[in-house]
Design a protein that fits this description.
By secondary structure, the chain is an alpha/beta fold. The protein has two domains: 2-122, Rossmann fold (3-Layer(aba) Sandwich); 123-153, no CATH class. The protein contains seven helices and seven strands, in the order αβαββαβαβααβαβ. A three-stranded parallel beta sheet has the order 3-4-5. The chain is globular and about 55 Å long. It starts with a helix and ends in a 6-residue tail after the last strand.
Length: 158
């Protein structure tokens, strides 16, 4: 959604299972592909996952493409990327850390947040009581969730 708001052309989303394709399409992607379907030729790939996905993301780039690293949700060890490989294949890698960027340009981040609050970007959030933390963790580990799970620490019922 953010890519579209910023003027991106074709926007492709990636999901871990076929069961998540329709949920992802609801967010306005032009196409949704399974993570295991190796695609290539992308000008920009945004990788919030890290680990083995980081290498797959780099391999999905077209010449002159850019990999934007925005997180390491997998918690996996860092993946070594060779500067010579980037040079020889005319690809680049950059990082984007929202917390650090907020300190650099709070006005732009504030504008983006206002757009989200105004409903220009949709966020799927499921709020669960703290008593369901173990179940929430199992769901995340199994890959069965779509959107975000948030634990309400003030609600200990279950």
């Amino acid at each position: 959604q953010a890519a579209r708001l910023l003027g991106a052309g074709r926007v492709v989303g990636t999901v871990g299972s076929a069961a998540k394709i329709e949920a992802a399409r609801a967010f306005g992607y032009d196409e949704v592909v399974l993570r295991d379907q190796r695609q290539s030729g992308f000008d920009v790939v945004v990788d919030p996952v890290g680990g083995p996905s980081r290498r797959a993301s780099l391999d999905a780039l077209a010449p002159m493409g850019r990999l934007v690293v925005v997180g390491n949700a997998s918690g996996a060890d860092d993946v070594a990327l060779s500067p010579n490989e980037l040079w020889l294949t005319n690809r680049s890698v950059s990082g984007f850390n929202l917390a650090a960027y907020t300190a650099l340009d709070p006005a732009t981040v504030g504008s983006a947040l206002r757009r989200a609050v105004a409903g220009e970007m949709r966020v799927q959030v499921e709020v669960l009581p703290l008593a369901e933390a173990a179940d929430a963790h199992r769901r995340i580990e199994s890959g069965s969730t779509t959107g975000k799970l948030v634990l309400n620490v003030r609600d200990v019922s279950g």
